Amino acid sequence: MNFKTYAESTGKRAIELAKKAERASKETGVNIIVAPQFTDLCRVAEAVELPVFAQHIDPIAPGAFTGQVQADAVKEAGVVGTLINHSERQLKLADIDAVVRLAGEKDLISCVCTNNPSVSAAVAYLQPDIISIEPPELIGTGVAVSKAQPEAVTNTIQLVRKVNDHAVILCGAGLSRGEDVSVALKLGTQGVLVASGIVKAKDPYTVLREFADSTKL
Amino acid sequence: MNFKTYAESTGKRAIELAKKAERASKETGVNIIVAPQFTDLCRVAEAVELPVFAQHIDPIAPGAFTGQVQADAVKEAGVVGTLINHSERQLKLADIDAVVRLAGEKDLISCVCTNNPSVSAAVAYLQPDIISIEPPELIGTGVAVSKAQPEAVTNTIQLVRKVNDHAVILCGAGLSRGEDVSVALKLGTQGVLVASGIVKAKDPYTVLREFADSTKL
Amino acid sequence: MNFKTYAESTGKRAIELAKKAERASKETGVNIIVAPQFTDLCRVAEAVELPVFAQHIDPIAPGAFTGQVQADAVKEAGVVGTLINHSERQLKLADIDAVVRLAGEKDLISCVCTNNPSVSAAVAYLQPDIISIEPPELIGTGVAVSKAQPEAVTNTIQLVRKVNDHAVILCGAGLSRGEDVSVALKLGTQGVLVASGIVKAKDPYTVLREFADSTKL
Amino acid sequence: MNFKTYAESTGKRAIELAKKAERASKETGVNIIVAPQFTDLCRVAEAVELPVFAQHIDPIAPGAFTGQVQADAVKEAGVVGTLINHSERQLKLADIDAVVRLAGEKDLISCVCTNNPSVSAAVAYLQPDIISIEPPELIGTGVAVSKAQPEAVTNTIQLVRKVNDHAVILCGAGLSRGEDVSVALKLGTQGVLVASGIVKAKDPYTVLREFADSTKL
After folding, report:
1. D90 touches chain A (CB under 8 A)
2. Would C55 disulfide with which of A148, B85, B148, D67, CB 3.0-4.6 Å?
């Protein structure tokens, strides 16, 4: 679950949201990863037992880089992985490669976001741990990728598996109902990446439960 | 004091460094502001009574922005101000304007970094609280701006004061000895912006004391 | 007149459009500057006697920069000036400063685009030859800045003139009728920056004439 | 041959350099592609019978984009292909994908530059016509990739061929002598990408001949 920079997932509300995710995870046994903002990482990591991801890290070693985000810093905050190249924080290709390597060296789980099947296949060659396809035109719309573009998901899986048999494949964008999740899994993904569908929901816990329960259908 | 992303100023070491700054500040009565990495902001703000700045914020309202840094998030972490447009994190002109306004709305102190006198004068019109001139070619060199380019500092003060009589004016780049600081103040600045001179020093506390004491000469 | 990258102002059609502007200029005695795409600069400069501007140049000296645009190259193509920091091609503040200086050294007329009065005043300090205010929310809308935001124009003039008495001040965004131009001049500007209002018009020559005639009302 | 933005390959000197390349090409029968600056494309394309490439194009359709480079504009200038993602003009991954597709739609030959074997393999999935590996640390050094990092070249070929059997594979960076070229071909590349080795040479024609002759050894 990507917290983005919504008001509903900032500061104290980030911790509350993470606790709801923890409760839904414990009740259902479904793995939920939370990705809060940089400033909330340490507090969320302390508050819950869920795996915590950063939303982005920069392709840098420790040094003279003001206002950037280095791998060691997020690790010290309790982070175990990172999103890379989210459509709202895209990177140059060489930097995606560098950050995936950096994550590997630092024992951080790398989750590279992609926008279509061929880009997903390209990324598969960089050996990230997770690939998440999110057609940008569907993000935040409530129109689920799994229903609106099922072939984008299945083509991604097919192309990625030709060159990479171990990366976890997720999909995201527009997921707002439990059914969207169960369809995504039936298409062959191993999970989903969600944001506004939960963060902006009136009752995030209920949606989290619905999503988690739907993984078992 | 800008912590940048040095190994010496990350995580636990960020807190230790901030405590040394707090000690030097309390012993000398000199104001010291610390600017740790995003991930360390809340822990440093809890650990010391010094004012804490962010190293950067993005020109965004809360919303669907992954991997970015919003004003409300740094405020909730205990931050009271922010660096803007550091030479290692430069912004487009319209974004500097937007972030200075945003900081004003959020009661965050805005400190815009500039690279020369005419850019400083340009920034003065955007009404930030603090303007800090740092010739980028001297950053991290140990060659102090106050000694190598005193006219850059005095020209900045002269040009800025023509259009803005309230902004605090700092200078930075290459400051490594107490004398560099006292010269900077004699040139007319109201403080200094330092990073590697302290963070990378063998004994940061001693340098901090030397810098703080030099403000009184 | 900014040709942007419209189909109507590319290649041969750029030359035809420039010739219409030349005719309108000769018939009315009104100065018209044309700013075609990089690839069309030399052919347009050969085809017409109007002053030709580039739409952008990079803050670089000749050297190892692939895919960038250097001052000497546009000069050799017959260009006499350049737009800088158009809202569709924004620059970091230090780069605006560098490009304005570079243009000065190369005897190129510098026209810096700005988005609001305070940014215009900031730019005035960098001493460009021309400042053009274009509220980005009006660009391409057909809603003229001179009518929708007259105070943005008059405030720009007032603030700029406090620190700079020689820069030519233009305004742009949404200008589509002759009246928009005459109002702009009555507000105190010395000309206008237009694009889609002419380029996308059914009959660009007629609109050009209408605009040129309106400068005399 | 990438002209970059060197003084030696700007304006009239771009045409002279292209004519030297044309002479070397005709005398030896070796294919030479020239990639001048945007502003020189039409004049070079008129002056010589060699294939002319752009150094970069933007991922845009015709429209309201100031200071950018669109596919139709370079085509009208006589261009038949384009470099993409040169290490001095890197693109986001999704933009590389978009530009390769755009080039395909416009019948432009796409040549994507890469920095290492795994990035090359990633790019192979995007189906460009040409892939050129150039380790950035060797560019402009005179230390030839084919001699300093032969395994980067052979690993690239091996990885690319697993997923793409038709893309032409080039290598570049540091090539300054004919021997560098013949070694590159022996490693399995189908050509080389060169810039300063020729552009900055005292006698570019002689080096061009030496390079062209070396392809036959």
Report:
1. yes
2. D67
Amino acid letter, residue A49: E
Identity at C213, one-letter amino acid code: D
Tell me whether residue D134 is one of the annotated catalytic residues. Answer: yes
Are residues A39 and B7, on separate chains, in Cβ contact within 8 Å?
no
Please check the confidence at residue D8 and state whether its pLDDT lies above 90.
Answer: yes
Least Cα separation, residue B93 to chain C (angstroms) = 5
Q: Which residue of D has its CA nearest to C139?
A: D64
Instruction: Identify residue A82 by its one-letter amino acid code.
Output: T
Nearest residue on chain D to A122, judged by CA atoms? D122
Closest residue by Cα to residue C208 from C5, C25, C10: C25
Per-residue DSSP letter, A108? P
Distance CA A31, CA A22 (A): 9
pTM of the model: 0.95
Question: Quick one: pLDDT at residue D216?
Answer: 84
Alpha carbons C145 and C141: distance in angstroms, whole number = 10
- How far is residue C30 from each of residues A155, C2, C190, C206, measured CA to CA in Å? 59, 16, 12, 14
Mean pLDDT (chain A) is 94
D67·C76 Cβ contact <8 A: no
Read off the amino acid at residue C164: N
Residues of B18-54 as b/e, b for ≥16 C-beta within 10 angstroms? bbbbbebbeebebebbbbbbbbbbbbbbebbebbbbb
Round to the nearest angstrom and report the end-to-end CA distance of chain C. Answer: 20
Helices (H), D11-62: 12-28, 41-47
